[in-house]
Design a protein that fits this description.
Shape: elongated
Strand order of the largest sheet: 12-14-16-18-20-21
CATH topology of the largest domain: Leucine-rich repeat, LRR (right-handed beta-alpha superhelix)
Oligomer: single chain
Largest sheet: 6 strands, parallel
Order of helices and strands: HHEEEEEEEEEEEEEEEEEEEEHEH
Number of strands: 21
Number of domains: 2
Mean pLDDT: 84
Number of helices: 4
CATH class of the largest domain: Alpha Beta
Length: 315
């Protein structure tokens, strides 16, 4: 790592010296009226050197280096973590390496790392890529920085000891099977208000989750919430959730609090939920849906339910 960084610094110093020499040459040419090289030619040459400097700065650090087991690569502007080859149980990814920001993780960067139990990510990254932590069967805790807007396919699949996860405001998309079979997740999961996309089987087989709170306009489907212990679905006021084409929920779902803003529920969305009560305002689409599909509907206590869960969320 030190050799890689030293080579980078020496290269930059040499390039800077060359640029200064060319600048001085241009000034001398103007002063002495050298006929062999015009000012335009010198300035054009300077521009070419500037472009070459930028290109070289982006390539001089392309060989992999390691830092505390993290295999990283730089393009001279930013750093990507390519893999982890260490044996530590707790891993902290720094925000900077050799003075450059760590902005990217490679696909499958920690895939099948069985020793890692805790990972700390910097707030310089915006994407958790496909399979980033897939198969990390002993991973208990990972922070998802507020800067992350996208979580890739199978990112936390089979992280069956992952106990809690906080999805930050600013997260826009959760790709297919992102948390599939993360069986240790438990309690109430609150999806951020910024979330716009779930892409199939997102939380499938997270069988210790007891509740899901949805706060944004989502399309649910393809078994996104097929969790055997899930008992509560709470959709907050104003969220125009669309229930997709496949049976999304399992038989354990007992209460679905659905506001009037929901106007589309596929006929099979709750097909497996034979103990379900839909709590919704009188006259809502959800009330009509419940009656047409022989689902118990409670309109009298909707305001009370909402008040109780809003109080919980405010804590």
């Amino acid at each position: 790592m030190r050799r890689n960084g030293l080579f980078s610094q020496l290269t930059r110093l040499l390039l800077l010296a060359l640029a200064l020499l060319l600048t001085c040459s241009a000034a001398l040419a103007e002063t002495w009226n050298l006929s062999s090289c015009t000012m335009d030619e010198l300035l054009a040459l300077r521009q070419q050197v500037d472009a070459a400097m930028l290109d070289l700065a982006r390539t001089v650090d392309r060989s992999d280096a390691t830092l505390d087991g993290l295999v990283w690569v730089s393009n001279g502007v930013e750093v990507r973590i390519n893999a982890y080859e260490g044996t530590a149980t707790e891993v902290v990814i720094p925000a900077e390496i050799d003075g450059l920001p760590v902005t990217m993780l490679h696909t499958g960067v920690f895939r099948d790392c069985k020793t890692v139990t805790r990972i700390t990510l910097p707030d310089t990254i915006t994407v958790i890529p496909d399979e980033a932590f897939s198969g990390c069967s002993n991973l208990v805790s990972v922070n998802i920085p507020r800067t992350v807007t996208h979580i890739g396919h199978w990112a936390f699949k089979d992280c069956n000891k992952l106990q809690t996860v906080t999805l930050p405001e600013g997260l826009v998309t959760l790709s297919s099977a992102a948390f599939q079979r993360a069986e240790g997740l438990s309690g109430m999961l609150v999806l951020p208000t910024t979330l716009t996309g779930l892409n199939g089987y997102t939380f499938s087989r997270c069988d210790d989750l007891s509740g899901i709170v949805i706060q944004s306009d989502l399309v649910l489907g393809d078994a996104d919430m097929s969790c055997s212990s899930l008992e509560l679905l709470y959709i907050r006021e104003g969220a125009a959730v669309t229930f997709g084409s496949k049976s999304t929920f399992e038989a354990g779902l007992k209460v679905a609090i659905i506001p009037a803003s929901v106007t589309s529920i596929h006929e099979d969305a709750f097909a497996a939920c034979n103990k379900l009560v839909i709590v919704t305002p009188a006259g809502s689409y959800a009330e009509q849906y419940a009656r047409e599909h022989w689902i118990v509907c409670n309109t009298q206590d909707y305001d009370q339910y909402v008040a109780e869960y809003e109080a919980l969320l405010a804590q």
